[in-house]
Specification:
- With about 350 residues, this protein is of the alpha/beta class.
- The chain has 2 domains: about 170 residues, Rossmann fold (3-Layer(aba) Sandwich), CATH 3.40.50.1970; about 180 residues, Dehydroquinate synthase-like - alpha domain (Dehydroquinate synthase-like, alpha domain).
- It is about 45% helix and about 20% strand.
- Strands 1-2-9-6-5-3-4 form a 7-stranded mixed β-sheet, sandwiched between helices.
- A hairpin with a 2-residue loop joins strand 1 and strand 2.
- Helix 6 packs across helix 9.
- The structure holds nicotinamide-adenine-dinucleotide and zinc ion.
- The site of nicotinamide-adenine-dinucleotide has 29 residues, from helix 2, helix 4, helix 5 and helix 6.
């Protein structure tokens, strides 16, 4: 079992990582001072596998838990589904100290967190992330949101959980492609913050791919530490937090151009990271050898490095519509080496276009 402490202003909480966390979760619930009525939000894939077991643990901790199962998939991250959950919460008589638990991937975490942030102006929230992406990314940092028909994550809040528990034994049922998706973000943490962690991933490719226990705990804990360190220095995304966006500028364009179908998020980020490394090299900020290391690790971890079905013109236009673009200037997160990035908004158009052309 490993614990990562997240300190944010006055608030702080633990991320608990391990295999089989019954005792820790029960003890936490017993000592948390929650009201008895609780809601556990899960989805139609994860609920049937783990919902009952988790409900039993929470009830052993003294709660009365109602499991609410939403259809799996991004389309559940909507105001319409949120409204159904509010209705359930009111019907169940949840009060200001009633906890809401999120058991699932990032969709469940973002949606349940949004409900917890807004129902009665905020009730206790606990994350139980079950996908690798949710464990290393969406459950850390306190961003919660639902989508709008006109854009992803447009309606949301910053809202920190009381605790995060990750039982890695639940990942045995996670589809392979979802594992690779999470690995995309894990590689990112090495590139933006920690050269030694990047080297660790290079040296343990087989263990990383198979989620061998020790390697899984290490890479998830280290990823959470890095995200927590960045977020705690910049909770509301004014500066440093932007480095988490490494690879995402091009990724968002790729996701848009392929209709969010051909590549999932981590795959698009993988391609975008090679693109950002390439731009960095073209600007003389890093060596070609660094680009080669990034590309090679991404390939060895079964992630793509080129985007089929995209054109340079369309991608170039898209990057100006990204949420992170301010006053028409694209803020690129670029590499100064492995383990170190910086933001630049002065990248010439021909350099961006050349890097995009190399990725399609
Ligand atoms: P997801 O929640 O859709 O989960 C992926 C798939 O895996 C789903 O079908 C889910 O049912 C299934 N699944 C999850 N855990 C499983 C398990 N243990 N066994 C079997 N199946 C399992 O998607 P995701 O990739 O986890 O998260 C993506 C979402 O996260 C997006 O909505 C994205 O916007 C959001 N996100 C949020 C943040 C943030 O900071 N809040 C950061 C990154 C991503
Ligand atoms: Zn991402």
């Amino acid at each position: 079992m490993r614990k990562v402490r997240v300190a944010l202003g006055e608030e702080s909480y633990d991320i608990v990582i391990g295999y089989g966390l019954e005792q820790d979760l029960r003890a936490f619930v017993q000592g948390a001072g929650f009201s008895r009525q609780a809601m556990l939000v899960t989805d139609s894939n994860v609920g049937p596998l783990y919902g009952e077991n988790v409900r039993a643990i929470l009830e052993a901790g003294g709660l009365s838990v109602t499991v609410v199962t939403i259809p799996a998939g991004e389309s559940s991250k909507s105001l319409a589904v949120a409204e159904k959950l509010y209705t359930r919460a009111i019907e169940l008589g949840l009060d200001r100290k009633s906890p809401i638990f999120a058991l699932g991937g990032g969709v469940v975490g973002d949606l349940a967190g949004f409900i917890a942030a807004t129902y009665m102006r905020g009730v206790p929230f606990v994350q139980l992330p079950t996908s690798l992406l949710a464990q290393v990314d969406s459950s850390v940092g306190g961003k919660v949101a639902v989508n709008h028909a006109l854009g992803k994550n447009l309606i949301g809040a910053f809202y920190q959980p009381k605790a995060v528990f990750m039982d890695l034994s639940m990942m045995k049922t996670l589809p392979k492609r979802e594992i690779y998706t999470g690995l995309g973000e894990i590689i990112k943490y090495g590139i933006i913050y920690d050269a030694a962690f990047f080297a660790y991933l290079e040296q343990h490719v087989q263990d990383v791919l198979s989620l061998e226990q020790e390697a899984a705990v290490h890479m998830i804990a280290r990823s959470c530490e890095i995200k927590a360190a960045v977020v705690s220095q910049d909770e509301k995304e004014r500066g440093l937090r932007r480095i988490l966006n490494f690879g995402h500028t091009m990724a968002h364009a790729i996701e848009k151009e392929t209709g969010y179908l051909r590549y999932n998020h981590g795959e698009a980020v993988a391609i975008g990271m090679v693109g950002a490394a390439d731009i960095s090299a073209r600007l003389g900020m890093i060596e070609e050898a660094d680009v080669a290391r990034v590309t090679s690790l991404i390939e060895r971890l079964h992630l793509p490095t080129v985007a089929e079905g995209c054109t340079v013109d369309a991608m170039y236009k898209d990057i100006f519509h990204d949420k992170k673009t301010i006053n028409g200037k694209v803020n690129w997160v670029l590499m100064e080496g492995i383990g170190k990035v910086t933001c630049r908004n002065d990248v010439p158009e021909d350099v961006v276009r050349a890097a995009m052309a190399a990725r399609i």
